Amino acid sequence: MNAPHLETPPIPLSSLRWERGTSRIPFAAYNDPELHKRELQRFFYDKHWCYVGLEAEIPKPGDFKRTNVGERSVLLVRAMDSAIHVVENACAHRGVAFCRERHGNRDAFVCPYHQWNYALDGRLRGVPMRHGVKRDGVVQGGMPADFKLADHGLTKLKVAVRGGVVFASFDHQVESFEDFLGPDILRYFDRLFDGRKLHVLGYNRQRIPGNWKLMQENIKDPYHPGLLHTWFVVFGLWRADNQSQMVMDAKGRHAAMISTRGNAGTVSEVSRVSSFKQTMNLHDPRFLDIVPEPWWNGPTAVMTTLFPSVILQQQVNSVSTRQIIPDGHGHFDFVWTHFGFEDDTPEMTQRRLRQANLFGPAGFVSADDGEVIEFSQETFEAKPGHRTLVELGGDEVANTDHMVTETLIRGMYRYWREVMES
Amino acid sequence: MSFEDWMALNQLYSDYAIAVDSGRWDSWPEFFIEDCSYRLQPRENYDRGFPLATLSFESKGMLKDRVYGIQETLFHDPYYQRHVVGTPVIRKLEAGRIHAEANYAVFRTKLSGLSTVYNVGRTIDEVVRTEAGFKFASRLVIYDSEMIPNSIIYPI
């Protein structure tokens, strides 16, 4: 059932007015349902790898997890031979999204509507009444003589597994996952997922009323953390005078923001902001019981955006994946999977869980990211002819060795224009 | 359990709900003993044995740090919240310690907005007798709500 995708009809992008490269982003890029369909097709369903989960979520044969690629429901499955498959959760017969559990263990998938039966790799194994039903010696009905089970499996996605992380693509001609990331971003991916077995600590799920791209932009924006997030600036976790690098792949679609903690508590240019609290002391300092780990190789924070579907978080000892699942142009679901490593001591696990208080939908430094995204979207909807301004550091797109720049957002939109306008 | 204790326990649950709906955030940590636990956890994690919580505080000091966060560091859309809490059910009685559970629903009302169902679930609690009356030693707040509507700022 891997039919060629039907391309959405080209719609005029000429209504979007760009100025100074991609440093002024039209509000219309965030609030048009037709553009959104085109984004789904071109970024989520074609030529891109999307995050679907961790191998550790499906450790045993028969384990499955239901998730999404773009707005489509898919199943991440470990078959009886331990091979990992990703299939679309849509019966080949009537399109029923048959799997309703979010996780479980099965030896087959059966659609409840007419009991079409699929192997875990998506092959169609059987169809009730395929050869008709005999009554009074006469066979009635049945599928046509040329009906072949092999033609009607579940849609299979191409799968890439690296370092315990699983990506999938509806596009079987997609480049390799390694080429997709490019060498510079792959290096930071491999730093976090270095082959150690992962273990899942749990999930947080939030629905954010804003365009999905705004979350990619939030983690391509090193300008805001030391301003919006008081904890980051007061405790030196992220501030503009930290040693840092902004790195993109050659296309500008993926990025890593790399920073090393310093200057906690000291007063300087960056602390003369209203969010800086010179006298702020924690009643319980265990929130920030930070212990450096050998695999960091220096940086205390590396935030990696893999376009379009996921953010990889290392903020000191807290590590997570953050999956972006769009739902129309104006909403997305944001799914956090916190994890640890097989060689973590119980103390390190406790530390990761404690530092998780900083992140997620209620986190000391993450709750307000969703809030500001919501308030940006409010204005985008009300004023579609206007545009944002991302000119910190000029209007060019280039890696930097500081964080006083919005170059990563400009890079993403340079790529967005290339793909959307072609 | 004596009638007086039953009354005091119900009063504790009602007072807690009123406090976290009042906007007087400083009063929230005072419902707990010093060496306490407050965890706000998705039902999914609780049922599957995953330790991650949306908020996980291990001392009254951490609760005070959260109050400071609400008041000073967390930028957010202001909102009212309103708890409706069911009658607690007693699971176990020990010397000086009550194990109890209660269902709850929280409605959120943003300024100029409609009131919506915000977060629903149950609390699994351990309440201890102190000189200042009953206090929570542990509050495990397990929410059914599959999706947090953007963010949670105030205590549930």
Question: Explain this structure to me?
Answer:
- The complex is a heterodimer of chains A (422) and B (156).
- Chain A has 422 residues and is α+β, with helices and mostly antiparallel strands.
- In chain A, 20% of the residues lie in helices and 25% in strands.
- Chain A has eight helices and 19 strands.
- A seven-stranded antiparallel sheet of chain A has the order 1-12-11-4-3-2-5, with no helix packed on it.
- Chain B is of the alpha+beta class and 156 residues long.
- Chain B has a single domain, classed as Roll (Nuclear Transport Factor 2, Chain: A), CATH 3.10.450.
- Chain B is 26% helix and 45% strand.
- Chain B contains three helices and eight strands.
- In chain B, strands 1, 2, 3, 4, 5, 6 and 7 form a seven-stranded mixed sheet that branches.
Write down the Rg of chain A: 24 Å
Taken in chain order, the helices and strands of chain A follow as: HEEEEEEEEEEEEHEHHHEEEEEEHHH
Gross geometry of chain A: globular
Strand content of chain A: 25-35%
CATH topology of chain B: Nuclear Transport Factor 2, Chain: A
Instruction: Let me know the number of strands of chain A.
Output: 19
Low-confidence parts of chain A lasting 5 or more residues at pLDDT below 50? none
Low-confidence runs of chain B:
none
Multimer state: heterodimer
Strand content of chain B: 35-45%
- List the strand order in the largest sheet of chain A: 1-12-11-4-3-2-5
- Largest interface: which pair? A-B, 42 and 36 residues
CATH class of the largest domain in chain A, please? Alpha Beta
Average pLDDT metric of chain B: 97
What's the end-to-end separation of chain B, in Å?
A: 27 Å
CATH class type of chain B: Alpha Beta
Number of domains of chain A: 2
Count the DSSP helices of chain B. 3
State the domain count of chain B: 1
The helicity of chain B comes to 25-40%
